[in-house]
What does this fold into?
Amino acid sequence: MRYSDTLIDAERREHAAVIMKNPSAADEQQADATIRKVETYIYHRFPGVRWLHILNIFAYRATDPADLNAAFADNGAMYVIGGENDHVIGKIIEDCDYIVLAWGNSSGIDRTLYEERVYRTSQLLQAIPRSRIFTICGRTRTKHPLHGLMWGYDYTINPVGKYLDDK
It folds into this structure.
């Protein structure tokens, strides 16, 4: 998505990508609460960003993890991951000025499948300079980067640091 020319000054020229878990209610036409929170946070905290790319480690659209798990059980991993997902993630993050990790914990998604996707996504990020990769941190401590819906507007932006080294 591109921030409207009427909302921002022409000086904004940077791209940001936020990598989350899986699409739920939002699509290319309509935002949901998570997307609205993420775009507001990025708009205010990354003052040079004009383009925001929302990426997901799973391409399968589901609001309930049980639906994703059922699709995985019935159709296999590639069905819920998406055959082109890694390619798209890799291409977009290559060209972004900032990448924010925001996939959160598994939240009911099959743990083995989830950890494999986090590992694979972390491998895609290995080619990106660490200076461009961030997490948002606040009061909640999780094993994985804090999900975008959980970001508080006062939460801090932190370089990714050791997180990717552990993957």
